[in-house]
Each structure stands twice: as structure tokens, then as C-alpha cells.
Amino acid sequence: MPTKEDIDNWLKAIGKNRKWLAEKCLVQPGQCYNWFAVNGKIPKKKLLLIKSWMEEQTQEVVCIDLPDLDSRGKMELRLDYETQLKVEKEALRLGMELSAYCTEAVEWCCSQPDIGARLAARLAAKRAAMPAPDTVPDIPTTFIGTGTHVQQLAPQPDSSQNKPSLS
């Protein structure tokens, strides 16, 4: 069964709050808030409902094809410019190559027992808030790497945008 913390993380990941959960569970918001108090307890029937909603979102995202065996050990990342800049700065701060930093991040994620449910909830929330295709702000930059070597495939954003670079 999900814990109160699991439910709070799920709500955050999907961009909802306890008031929304109360409406979905057909209870008053105050009653729902009491469930999350230190000594509060979520009724078993409501907990089963919440668990099923959390699992539904996980099942929506899990339907993906595994890569061909020939591509094992290689990964393609698509990051918008701002995210890429944040990742580059953090790798630089830690004195790591970009590909080594990304490898560490992915390996860490894989070691988290609830990463599947957390990621599924995050993706569902992103999908719900996704802008129309013609309003996407940045062109993704694509990197292919094997852990120590990285090859940039997409062009950098136009320099007229005055965005800083870590070159």
C-alpha cells in the first residue's frame, strides 16, 4: 500500500493537491487533510482507490519498446537548452564529464525502489500540462554517448538568443 509520503509525492508529480484528492475521494477537504496528520489514518477503502489511481498512471506510461540489443550501452538524451545548461553546470561543478554525470544520474535513478511510479506520475502530469505542438519553446539538443564520449547531433540554439555557454 502507498504511504502518506508516496501519495504526497504522487500528488506533487501530477500537479494536484490534497483538496483535489478530497474531491476525487468524495470527502470534505478537512477530512482528507486529517488523513495526512501525524496520527491520521487513510481509510482502507480510500487507500485502495488512491492506489488504483496511482497504478493506472503507471500502466499508461509503461508501454514502451525496449531498444535493440545492438544499442545496449548507448543512450540518446534529448534536453531543452535550459535543462542541458543546468546539467552541464552541475557536471562541471562536480568535475565530471557530461556523459559520466548523466550515467551516474541514470544509475542512481535505477537504484530507487519507487522510481517507476514517481516517473510515471511525473510523465502523466507533464502530458496533462503539455503545450500545443506549435508552442514548444526550445528545439531539443540531442547527444549520443557511451559513458565517456559524447557526440552532439543537433545544432546549438541561435546565438542571437543571448544565452550563456559553458564552452
Describe the structure.
The structure is a single chain. The protein has 167 residues and is mainly alpha-helical. The protein folds into 2 domains: 4-62; 69-161, no CATH class. It has 7 helices and 3 strands, in the order ααααβαααββ. The protein has helices at residues 4-13, 18-25, 29-35, 44-62, 81-93, 98-111, 115-129; strands at residues 75-79, 141-145, 150-152. Strands 1-2-3 form a 3-stranded antiparallel sheet. Helix 1 (4-13) packs parallel to helix 7 (115-129) and helix 4 (44-62) crosses helix 7. The longest helix has 19 residues, at 44-62. This is Lambda repressor-like dna-binding domain.
Name some characteristics of this structure.
single chain; 167 residues; mainly alpha; 2 domains; 3-stranded antiparallel beta sheet; 7 helices; 51% helix; elongated; Lambda repressor-like dna-binding domain
**Helix fraction by DSSP (H/I, runs of at least 4):** 40-55%
In oligomeric terms, what are we looking at? single chain
Total number of helical segments? 7
Main beta-sheet strand count, sense and barrel state: 3 strands, antiparallel
* Protein structure class: mainly alpha
Structural Rg:
20 Å
The neighbouring-strand order within the major sheet is 1-2-3
Strand content: 5-15%
Query: What's the N-to-C terminus distance?
Result: 48 Å
Q: State the shape.
A: elongated
How many domains? The number is 2
Order of helices and strands: HHHHEHHHEE
- The total of beta strands comes to 3
Are there runs of 5+ residues with pLDDT below 50, and where? 148-154
Arithmetic mean of pLDDT:
76
